[in-house]
Amino acid sequence: MAKFRKKKSGGQQAINTSSLPDIVFMLLFFFMVSTTMKEVDLMVNIAPAQATELSKLEKKELVTFIYVGVPTGKYRSLYGSEPRIQLNDQFATVDDIQSYIAQARDAMKESDQPKMTTSIKADKDCPMGVITEIKQALRKAAALKINYSASEKAEVK
Amino acid sequence: MGKREVQEVNAGSMADIAFLLLIFFLVTTTMDTDTGLARLLPPMQEDQPDDTPPIKERNVFTVLVNSNNQLLVEGKPMSMEELTEATKEFIENPLDKDNLPEKKEAEVPFFGVQMITKGVISLQTDNGTQYQTYLMVQNELQRAINELRQDLAKRKFGKDYDDLEKEEQDAIRTIIPQKISEAEPKNIGGK
Question: Which of A34, A61, B80, B101 could form a Cys-Cys staple with B119, CB 3.0–4.6 A?
Answer without folding.
Answer: B101
